[in-house]
Amino acid sequence: MEGTLRRVHILKTITSSSKPISATALAQQYHVSRQIIVGDIALLRAAGHEIFATPRGYLIQSIATACSFTIACVHQPKDTRDELYAIVDAGGTVLDVIVEHPVYGQLCGQLNLHSRNDVDDFMKQIEANHIQLLSSLTEGIHLHRITCEHESVRKTILAALQSKGYLYDHQQ
Predict the structure, then answer these.
(1) Is the pTM of this model over 0.90?
(2) CA–CA separation, 42 and 162 (whole Å)
């Protein structure tokens, strides 16, 4: 299949899926290498398509929900699972994690975590590959962009994180 046509099909595949699709799965589907898919995704992004890379694969997700907000958090790496559980258990989706690096500026990692299973998969990848969290670069301070369906869910998320001491207060 010619590259332009393959990219059209890849875009349709990702757009029609509610779950992330890995580069390996796309490579198998279109009978090309994983690296070709990575290049195709880069070209699709350059053409203006908002394709997110998550630990589980690529997806296109509209973040226009009833409620979208950013929170500042701080905690130890050992508390990451608990923090993420608090958000997804309350009905939120953790879109990403953002840190301010002194040299590179803002660094962002796409997460798109909707459930405890998503959080567990993310944490398994971190642990299995001995990867440091982005927040380790900033003494645990980081931002999360979160979406949810209702303002009441936002309040529940904030209350849960506040009760656990995870919300960042610059006076700490």
Answers:
(1) no
(2) 39
